[in-house]
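Notes from hallway chat w/ T.B., transcribed later so I don't forget. T.B. wanted the structure written out for a chain they're using in a teaching module, and asked if we could keep both sequence and structure tokens in one place. Agreed to drop them here.
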Amino acid sequence: MKFLIRIGVTALSILILQHFLKGVEVKDWWVSLIVAVVLAFLNAIVKPILQVLTIPITMLSLGFFLLVINAGMIMLADKLVDGFHVSGFWRALLFSILLSLVSGLLNLIFGVSKNEHE
């Protein structure tokens, strides 16, 4: 149940951020929900693989390359979901940072912790 709440919180965060960031477009609530599910899938499957493959550059950059991977996940979601558009790498990077902050804050408000088990 907490997973579904986190997906909803992420979808809400996406909708909120599109109003504040030019270059991020979301058609409607359903599209933001689909984007949230796609991002959850990408973060669970693709992101760990990329993290392992890029360990040397991540270590050399003191972890900052993980931000590049996060932006890549946003850009990949842009390609996979019709009705969702991010206007470039830098916008995706800013969006990924703000999405983490806003969804983290909303998860805290709704009392949903990522580390708790259901």
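Follow-up for T.B.: The mean pLDDT is 91. Might be a good example for the class.
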